[in-house]
Amino acid sequence: xxxxxxxxxxxxxxxxxxxxxxxxxxxxxxxxxxxxxxxxxxxxxxxxxxxxxxxxxxxxxxxxxxxxxxxxxxxxxxxxxxxxxxxxxxxxxxxxxxxxxxxxxxxxxxxxxxxxxxxxxxxxxxxxxxxxxxxxxxxxxxxxxxxxxxxxxxxxxxxxxxxxxxxxxxxxxxxxxxxxxxxxxxxxxxxxxxxxxxxxxxxxxxxxxxxxxxxxxxxxxxxxxxxxxxxxxxxxxxxxxxxxxxxxxxx
Amino acid sequence: xxxxxxxxxxxxxxxxxxxxxxxxxxxxxxxxxxxxxxxxxxxxxxxxxxxxxxxxxxxxxxxxxxxxxxxxxxxxxxxxxxxxxxxxxxxxxxxxxxxxxxxxxxxxxxxxxxxxxxxxxxxxxxxxxxxxxxxxxxxxxxxxxxxxxxxxxxxxxxxxxxxxxxxxxxxxxxxxxxxxxxxxxxxxxxxxxxxxxxxxxxxxxxxxxxxxxxxxxxxxxxxxxxxxxxxxxxxxxxxxxxxxxxxxxxxxxxxxxxxxxxxxxxxxxxxxxxxxxxxxxxxxxxxxxxxxxxxxxxxxxxxxxxxxxxxxxxxxxxxxxxxxxxxxxxxxxxxxxxxxxx
Lengths: 251, 342
Hints:
- The structure holds 2 protein chains of 2 kinds.
- Chain A is built from 9 helices and 10 strands.
- Chain A has helices spanning 43-51, 73-78, 96-107, 122-134, 150-163, 180-191, 206-212, 230-235, 237-244, and strands spanning 3-14, 17-28, 32-36, 58-63, 66-67, 81-83, 168-172, 198-202, 215-220, 223-228.
- In chain A, 45% of the residues are buried.
- The two termini of chain B are 23 Å apart.
- By secondary structure, chain B is mostly helical.
- Chain B has 16 helices and no strands.
- Chain B is 72% helix and 0% strand.
- Chain B has helices at 3-11, 19-34, 39-61, 70-85, 92-114, 119-139, 141-144, 169-190, 193-203, 205-210, 215-241, 251-264, 270-289, 294-308, 310-317, 319-329.
- At the A-B interface, helix 2, helix 3, helix 4 and helix 5 of A face helix 1, helix 9, helix 10 and helix 11 of B.
């Protein structure tokens, strides 16, 4: 078994508050791994450390066996670690075409090109067209992002992360805030991600977690409570007690 | 057309030349022939336009605010003056490039201070650097001439052929040529992936980094380039007026530049050019009406622009021209409307 993403004894404190406690996670290559936990468990803090937005106080992060703990955000992306955000982080003034075009250009190493115009490279155009089609964004590709309906923005959020051709993709609550009518598109897109992409899903929605994940880690107060396949985690009395509470879980 | 060529087509949409742009430059060129008695003020507008375009590159595209852009203008101005005064580089175009490079070096060195921190920090850092340079120029008066400025600069003919004349005709066309060349370069740059990545950084630096954009490196690059532009604007100032004094570093100069961009609009390159024209004309008009209180009226205009919103003003002003252009050229060929409007 190959490990795609690993944390070793990760620690993060904000002032006196330990938000990540001795966290060691192993995400297998090609896994559909979910990280769940109650509000304030420190899930997003973990994501921020994995992607390089926050530096851990101690511990290491390994991407495909290589230590990336000290790499800046953009270098991790170029190494194949990409993410979506819980709250859309898009470019309000840019169009989906520009947004995705930029991500593709960066990955292909044309991002610093200051001479050639956007749209003059066929390989980049092909990829943009492909992504826009797959994410149902072709019809709105020239609209400013800020004017798009929320569901479309959510699709764009995921499309941008995919444009980086990640080998490991971190999905931070992909369906958060999406109206019921548009949820289907999002779930279909998430479900159809190629199997060679390893996915770490952070999610509140238990239906989505249990339908999608083949392995679940439960985070409570910054520490790992338990980990295992969905059916075992669902039955775990500890998990029921601290996290799921009285909520019934149907697997 | 398939999706891919559609994408290529629309990706290049902004970069295509519009009729309005050609008309704009032809009109500027025509001014050089129609108003032969106004070369000095028109040259002044061109310099201001170039200087404003420099600020637009960092403010309008990359979102870096600066209240000390005169630092680079000043370095360019003094460099050009010293080069001419001591006969180090006599040919104006070469001297212009050398002076621009001097400002560029300063821009690169100070960019590391500027990219740290957010807006308020940047305002203070840029302001501080400009004040610092002004003080240095005053302190080393043996080199800069102190409060008297550099005296007795004599400019050699441009390219060894075209002498600067007392009416400022050569200076005007020289400045226009420099502005146009640098505009073409800037236009090329802002429509490249690099230019687009700057807009992404301005929109959302967090996401920009999350798609693999080296944010700091891009900001350093554009800040350095903007310093080159500002330095060349400063060098043009010295070359066309044959003076360089401490006021090239003055705070007013940096602050006026902000006004120019507010009036013209940032982030579409023409804002600095249009803003420079309107700003100088307003200055002229108001100072003719009330020589003492013209700043009152400039202030009033500024407040109105900010409150009403520039985009709305643009739409009103350009309503008729765009109506005509739409008839002639079809949709999308609109003049001088910020990208977000087009």
